[in-house]
Write a structure and sequence with these properties.
The chain has 90 residues and is an all-alpha fold. The protein is 62% helix and 0% strand. The N and C termini lie far apart (60 Å).
Length: 90
């Protein structure tokens, strides 16, 4: 499904009635940390899925990313501790 401009405006998906991003659905949902993630989220919000199979696949992907610490995140956390300890050395 692709939402047209009127639907996006009336539902305040991208911009609020003030014409600002603040107060919109997109602003509420946007917790991305990269420009690519922001663009992908905007695409997802403007073109919601209709098929249960596709919706569940997306939910699985999101829960995978939001679940327990991944190995990469764990390594980054350890690296931060090492950098901090190294900075304390004389």
């Amino acid at each position: 499904m692709l939402l047209d401009g009127t639907a996006l405006t009336n539902l305040e998906v991208l911009l609020s009635t003030d014409g600002e991003e603040k107060g919109s659905l997109f602003k509420f949902l946007n917790r991305t940390s990269s420009p690519g993630g922001k663009r992908l989220l905007k695409d997802w919000v403007c073109a919601p899925l209709l098929q249960p199979k596709e919706i569940n696949a997306r939910l699985d992907a999101v829960s995978e990313l939001c679940g327990p610490l991944s190995e990469a995140e764990a390594l980054l956390k350890v690296w931060g501790i090492i950098k901090y300890a190294y900075a304390l050395l004389p």
